[in-house]
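As a warm-up, study this chain.
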Amino acid sequence: MSNNAEAALLERDAAYMIHPLHNKSVHSTGKVWIGGQGAFLFDANGDRFIDGLSGLWNNTAGNGRSELIEAGSNQLEAMAFASGYAGSSNDQAIALAENLARITYPSINQFFFTSGGGESTDSNIKMARYYWKVKGKPEKIKVISRVGGYHGVTFAAMCATGLNYYWPMFEPRMPGFVHIPGPYPYFYEAPEGSESQGIAAANELEKAIISEGPETVAMFIAEPVQGAGGVIVPQHDYFRRIREICTKYEVLMVSDEVITGFGRTGKMFGLQHWDVEPDMIQFAKAITSGYFSLGGIGINDEIANTMNSSGKPWMHAYTYSAHPTGCAIANAMIGVVEKDDFPKQAEEKGKRLLVGLKDALSHHPNVGEVRGLGLMCGIEYVKDRDTKEFFDPEDGIGAKLNNECISRGLFSRVRNDAYLLAPPIVTDNQTIDEIVDIVAASTKAVLG
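Now compare it with the structure written out below.
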């Protein structure tokens, strides 16, 4: 194709489309994708790019995976859609719930399906409120989450999301949402005399629960590794202390596994790294590798038994809940994850990527930290490594780095001046090394 093909498509796009995070100036130099294979995307001009973020963290199996295509096609032919409302079910949804009960945390055995991560956050918030009302504690309605956490942008999910640039044009936010500092090892400063940085960061939750009143707090929601907030890997003792606090104050612990689920971190689910079991989970993204919009929540046996013995309907519903075609693809995807051992692949390839990035960048005066877990990595760029001083936002360092990487054939995303990487788990070692080379060259081009 000619180099004008993409420009012509962008003109048509600008005339008719509103995009997620819509920004006309940003999109004017955007990409138009027309093909994908494995870990690569192809634009309308015919140029190849490494998919550095698996689409949006979700396409772990890459494009063109025959098992997923066939599962969707076969189900569309057999029965494209049927309602999942009470009184109606389908064999694929039942099989998916059974599969999830087998591979998720042991006490979590019942599942509700959604169309994605934001809907899953809202579903858990409503489930938590329902549960506490049935338990005779209707004042327990508040949600505590973390600064830097991302839980989606449906309205309740946006209020839980701890990235404040998602809020201003939609305020006022709903009441009942509280944010505590996250366990950001590079920046978090523990109070003097703390047992450890991780325990101190976890104790921020206890402070907030006491301040709000334990009788008012329904749930605490956290990503095992904060994704969109910058790939923040917590301290080893953080989540064990979080679990103690939630149990002590009767606060439901919700693990947002939308990014970390299904092998991304080197374990099937994120909290398995620290032998911690949540009360509720939420998932989406990699459950279908992005081949269908599907997500959901899982609740532990105590919550499920309370619901099922209450006699009170849970009046929460989505038209596409338990969509048979989506569930068929999800069942096939779980087969791929297990057959190809995605957790082990993510662990091994993630180590290769992290070591490569550290070797290439850790000496650079503007690289404050290179971090990661499994096949998730973040590079924190700072103006001064000794003081951890940020660049002036007007310098646009993150955007410049991203543009340099794109010009060299790597497409990913940034959070301020942190460059984020989470390539498909099927990415081969040669391509992992190419990612390292591109990021190193781009860093040199922008920062010397």
